[in-house]
């Protein structure tokens, strides 16, 4: 019990004079590095509307937090080592890095898929127009018209502006 609480911290119930009334520690006294109990520090923190402070002792940092029970004047305070307090923040930070990385990867993948779906039909349309220009296309040649229409229809199947443009071009071919 005592060693586990030493890892995560202790809870103390003290009276207005600083006497420890109860403790999660097996010894009902405050740790030696904060004896006497810093009643004046609690009063100063309370005046500034603070309920916690970081304190240094024995080359270790602790979080000292407290709450005053108004009607009876008792103070409940906790003393936790920094590593115990910050452990959840480190887990949260690591999780956020992973989620951000995965989200960024998904966003890039979706962007690539969208850009491909936009540029592929335009490239097909451009290729068809280039083919017409290079082959000296004549509008009255029905077989060539049919081949070009089939080529465009296979490559451009969308119903957006590009699809409408391809359909209009097909109609123009006859």
Describe this structure as you would to a colleague.
The termini are far apart. This protein has helices at about 1-10, 40-45, 80-135, 140-155, 160-174; strands at about 10-15, 20-25, 50-55, 60-70, 75-80. Strand 4 and strand 5 (about 75-80) form a beta hairpin. About 55% of the residues lie in helices and about 20% in strands. It is of the alpha+beta class.
Could you name the key traits of this structure?
alpha+beta, 5 helices, single chain, disordered N terminus, five-stranded antiparallel sheet, 174 residues
Structural class: alpha+beta
Question: Termini separation (Å)?
Answer: 89 Å
Reading the helices and strands in chain order gives HEEHEEEHHH
Average pLDDT, all residues: 75
The Cα radius of gyration reads: 37 Å
Strand content: 15-25%
Question: Numbering strands along the chain, what is their spatial order in the largest sheet?
Answer: 2-1-5-4-3
Low-confidence stretches: 1-6
Helix content range of the residues, please? 55-70%
- Counting H and I runs of at least 4 residues, what is the number of helices? 5
Biggest sheet layout: 5 strands, antiparallel
Can you count the beta strands? Answer: 5
Oligomer: single chain
Topology:
Elements: H1 2-8, E1 10-14, E2 20-23, H2 39-47, E3 52-57, E4 60-69, E5 74-81, H3 82-135, H4 142-155, H5 161-173
Antiparallel strand pairs: 1-2, 1-5, 3-4, 4-5
